[in-house]
Design goal:
The chain is mainly beta. Helices cover 6% and strands 46% of the residues. The protein folds into two domains: 3-91, RimM (Elongation Factor Tu (Ef-tu), domain 3); 102-173, SH3 type barrels (Roll), CATH 2.30.30.240.
């Protein structure tokens, strides 16, 4: 399994017990959806290695307590500290309406209700406090915040996202 075929689930942040249990900080608003996992890919040395789950439960807010098969000591757990966890993309729940996963809208055309066609989504910048559409308009990069207040419609068939950008925002880039 390659990383490009997976999505990030969370990161191992702490040991829980001397029996190899680990605490994972999840990257989700709905951690309960991951309580049925039977296995997960753990990134070690830039490779994704499958680990089977012996037990799994929620532990205080967004932390998940996981016990992997064949991880039965503190030393075993130490070797996994800081590792990232991934699942195959096909396990993501399908989203409908104006909700979307960032990876699924790459290549979509952004259309503004006033301006018209803005350009194509080349990537999403989620390293800032507000995630941004990075849009290519004939070689010019345009950044538009991803916000429910701006997004009017997501048309998966036509591969378009209709927005109503704040007045003057698009003009700044042109």
């Amino acid at each position: 399994m390659q990383k490009k075929d997976c999505f990030f689930v969370g990161k191992i942040v702490k040991k829980y017990s001397f029996k190899g249990e680990l605490l994972v900080k999840l990257d989700t608003d709905e951690p309960e959806q991951f309580l049925e996992m039977e296995s997960v890919f753990v990134e070690k040395h830039k490779n994704l290695i499958p680990f089977f789950i012996e037990s799994i439960s929620m532990h205080k807010s967004a932390l998940m307590r996981i016990k992997f098969e064949d991880v039965s000591s503190e030393a075993d757990a130490d070797s996994l500290m800081g590792s990232e966890l991934y699942l195959p993309l096909n396990l993501l729940p399908k989203l409908t309406g104006n909700k979307f996963y960032y990876h699924e809208i790459i290549g979509f055309t952004i259309v503004d209700t006033v301006f018209g066609t803005v350009g194509r989504v080349k990537s999403i910048n989620d390293s800032t406090p507000q995630a941004l559409f990075e849009i290519d308009r004939d070689g010019t990069e345009i950044l538009i915040p991803i916000s429910d207040a701006i997004i009017q419609n997501v048309d998966r068939e036509a591969k378009t996202i209709t927005i109503q950008a704040p007045e003057g925002l698009i003009d700044i880039y042109l």
